[in-house]
Amino acid sequence: MTNPSPNLKPLVLVVDDYDDAREMYAEYLEFSGFRVAQARNGQEALDQAFALTPDIILMDLSLPIIDGWEATRRLKNDDRTRAIPVVALTGHAMTGQSDEAKGAGCDSFVTKPCLPDELVAEVRHILAQRGVAVSH
Amino acid sequence: MASPVPVAPDPVTSADARLALAEQLLACDTARACAEAVVAWLPRHAQAVASACLAREEPGGRMGCLAAKGLSDAQHTALKAWSDDDVSHPLADVLAQAAPRFFPSARAPLPSPGPGGLLAVPLGRPGSPPVGLLLVWASGPTPPPEVAWVAGSVGPFLARQATSGPLGASGSALFRRIIDAVTDPVLLTDLEGRPRLANARAEALLVAHPDASHGRRRAVHLNQRVFSTAVASTASGGVPGLSWREIPLVDPVEGLDLLFELVSTRVYEPDGREAMVSVLRNVTDLGRATQALGESYRRLRATEREARSERHRLDRVLDSVADPIILSDPSGGTVMMNEPAEKLFTLPLDGGRAAQRRVRTNHATFASFLANLLDGGSNLRWRGQLSLMDPASGDTLPVEAVASKVLGDSGELTGIVTLFRDRGEALAKARLLERLKEVSTLLEARVQVATAELAEQNEKLRRQAIQLEQASAAKSQFLANMSHEFRTPLNAILGYTNMLLQGVSGELTPPQKRNLARIDSNGRHLLEVINEILDITRIEAGRMPLHLSDFGIPELLHEVMAEMDPIIARSKLTVSTQLGAKLPPVHSDRQKVKQIVLNLLSNALKFTHEGGVKVLAEYAPSTSMLTICVEDSGIGIDPAYQQKIFEDFQQVDSSPTRAYGGTGLGLSICRRLADMLGGRVSLQSTPGQGSTFTLHFPRRPRRT
């Protein structure tokens, strides 16, 4: 994928309806050198994704309006957003959720609680696979 | 008896010689005299070397040599040995053929002195079977010429002698006619039974005509022997007067067996000799009648015997029937009864007045029952329920009686057969059956009640099962939700703490850092508890399925060590792994095995302060079981707690002020996971010395 603005820091879209978690990850990502966009539900996530074309999306699965699975499916079915890697975040650790997330098109799966530094490490890891330049 | 033979003058010419012989023969009254005349004549007038005349001296006698001349001793002996019974002899053949035959010297049947042959000429009436043989030994190979004439002359004489016997010629014709007129055979014999005089009827039986067939002659010969033996035995018996006996003879003409009554009486002939007069009376028919009578008598006896045995058999058959049977005559009188019937209708041997009265009652009951059939109605059968009494005990015997008429050939009543059947047993059976039915109904009702109860219970259980299932599902859902609800805030707590500790919000003072570290540590503990509760919930809800794969134990242990490395480094303990020889690849749930080992190792590190921890992996091919031991030199576990620590939320010290952290759920999860692998976790421990936890699990999960 080619970043539309290669000189800018990678843009991370953080989708979570739980404000404390979303803002925590956003703050830490910015602290870690990323640009961050935020969405509180699946619909906002889709709008933001189409509008901003982020480099990576952190998607909580339990979301109001449109849940994370459905939002991921729509993103992966759209040519504009298909290539954006989606990291699924869930507080439900039940077996089967990771498979379901992968089925919806998620590229990675992270169980909450996930410490901010661990999440950032995962983001860097995936972006490095995609050849996106990440500053430290 | 031979008569003196007159000596004839020697004839001069052949014709004279012939005339002389003819006159001489006419004068002869016996066969022997004739024979002697002939054998004397032949050498003189017919150039015969030797001659012999063979004939029967008396009728029915043996053919023998009556006279011979010029014979050698050898020839005499040979002739004596000869018998006309020997039918294979050449001379017998001459007799049978009734034709002269010349035997050349070499083939002569009797010894021949010279070169000449033997001429055998049969003697008798022309056209009739021969009665004798004339044997002439010739000097040359040709028969002497006069022999044929001599044979032709003497033959009829000998034949007449053979027929009529010695007395034939001399008996008075009137006397002869008188005795011939007697229809019974009459004979005068000597004491040996040889006939001297026989009437026509006797001759027919005892004298063979020369022209009779062989069969007739045999029959006559047989008759002669039987007769003479009988007469001789009578004569030698010395009983004076009449003697009576029966003799079996054969009719020579018909060949039938006849039976004669022989009456013999001893008489004196005019010449003073003793003789026997025998009269035979044909009793054949009488004998047959007697025999037939005997036969029919015998049959009668046999039939009677048969009837008796038939009756006997019938008695036995009737007695063998267990039910009483009575046969009555048309008037109702008892003809016979079998043994079971006798017990009811006859007085027992030791029966008293009471028994007598009961038998009479039974008889009366039976008679009134029988009257139903005897009233002249057209019923062939009558059935009734009678109440008889046991004569011995007086017990009432309910019986069913069936009486059937026995009809003769023309449909007349000849008897009545009555059969009694004991109803006591049937009644008892019926009562039993009734009782059985009652019990059965009762049982059925009970079974129905029980079945209904069971069904109700089943329904209750089913509902309970559904409720339980629902409750279980609800619990699982609740725990899952709760876990989510726990995690969300915990995520923020741990996240912000982590950020603060990293200095995202600026540098912290050491006390702040220490306090934040405590928040962090307690938050992690809380997370651990939540995770473990979640694990147990998932296992119990069946939502942690087995994920089987092939993997190696060494690699797995290496991974565990790597993950535990930070804790090991902090603990300052010696931790070593030891792999048994020939550890095979394993087909099991890798994640669960790893989780168990991690858990055991983390426990060992937690409860060991000095010394070390050893991890040993081994394989037992005999049982296909793998063992992974985690051996520590820690505080050990009191035997009283060794079982308890595998339970939920249990530590040796479960008090809130306990010295060791942890949820107390680790071993209980290990136990559950090992169960799922088809294995178990065992413990050996001595307090103060250390503990060894061992995971046993099969190389491949066993099919269940």
Please characterize this protein's 3D structure.
The complex is a heterodimer of chains A (136) and B (704). In chain A, strands 2-1-3-4-5 form a five-stranded parallel β-sheet, with helices on both faces. Chain A starts with 10 loop residues before the first strand and ends in a 7-residue tail after the last helix. The mean pLDDT of chain A is 84. With 136 residues, chain A is an alpha/beta fold. Chain A has a single domain, classed as Rossmann fold. Chain A is globular and about 30 Å long. Chain B has 16 helices and 22 strands. Chain B has 704 residues and is of the alpha+beta class. The N terminus of chain B is likely disordered. The chains are: A alpha/beta (136), B alpha+beta (704). At the A-B interface, helix 1 of A face helix 12 and helix 13 of B.
